[in-house]
Amino acid sequence: MAVSLARVLRNLRNTRDFRAELLNMAAVLAGNEQSAVIQVEDPAISRETIREEWSRFMTVIRPAIADRLSLELADRTPSPVANMGVSRRIAANKSQTISLERPNYRAEVLRLLVGAHLANDGIWSVKNLIKKIGASQTPIRQALQDLKRSGVLHNWSGTHVDLLPESLTAELLAKLQVMPQMLRFRFERGAQIRTPVELMDRALPLLGQSAKGAWAKMALSGTAVAQAEVPSLDLFGVPRVDLVAFVPRDAKTFDAQALRKLSDGLEYEPNVLATAPVVVTLVRADEREMRTAVMEGVRCAPSMDVFLSLIDMNLRQQAAKYAKAVRP
């Protein structure tokens, strides 16, 4: 079988993430005739567990897709010589930028509909969605059609649309491919490891009024903002630093060097399932709302982005309580 798509999963920690990745790849193959391989390297869970999960999955998907999907399990323990090559590549890539995917308009539409619901604005018009995102009506209406077919939309009359944010889950968003591009950053080999709290302390001054460059287009999100807005939320600490970056739709790259201001040991993590201490969610809409009244002197992301970050961390109950608390 000639393979045209490959997804590498490193340090896979649980079957939930594995299932989400399998569903995502199956959804990709459903729309074409390509073949794909899932490569699992150095998993944290047992190989037997992975094989069992794979077998169960293969029995429930269409044979036309199962025949074009394969699994590879491999250990990647580099030799000292290989480590030297990796170190050289890391050093060479520190100043490089990250290539960006095309805007996912399903994600942008979903984001704004979540925001409208949290703001208690009622049902949004399609015209308003087009204006907020800034794209032509064709991709926006196509995104709405896709969301309608998936059952995510609560109501759509043809000109107006609404949904229930509490019905969303991380697995559902992955399955429907409505997640925005999220850039994850890990600590490179040999770097001094800093806790998320330490990274947060470094991020807050960078998100002030005097921010420059890439930091001027970023805002704080995640559990830190949720806890600041709703102190009664059942959240324990800061599992990671969540940032939202407002990036033009025609942008082709992202300046990863800016994140090294948090720690010079941070590097881009290409594995979308890997645990990472810093996660940057890209917003590709013309709307660039930033809030300054949530945390003094800190630009915070809109409530819709905070809500979606909680969903991404599988904090669904906390996300529901947050949504209820922030609604007018």
Give a verbal description of the structure.
- By secondary structure, this protein is α+β, with helices and mostly antiparallel strands.
- The protein contains twelve helices and 15 strands.
- The protein has helices spanning 15-30, 47-58, 63-66, 80-93, 105-118, 126-133, 137-150, 170-176, 196-206, 222-229, 303-312, 316-326; strands spanning 5-10, 36-41, 69-74, 98-99, 124-125, 153-156, 160-163, 182-187, 218-221, 241-246, 253-254, 266-269, 278-283, 291-295, 298-300.
- It has a five-stranded mixed β-sheet. A three-stranded parallel β-sheet has the order 1-2-3. A three-stranded antiparallel β-sheet has the order 5-7-6.
- Helix 10 (222-229) packs across helix 11 and helix 11 runs antiparallel to helix 12 (316-326).
- Mean pLDDT is 83; it is low at 76-95.
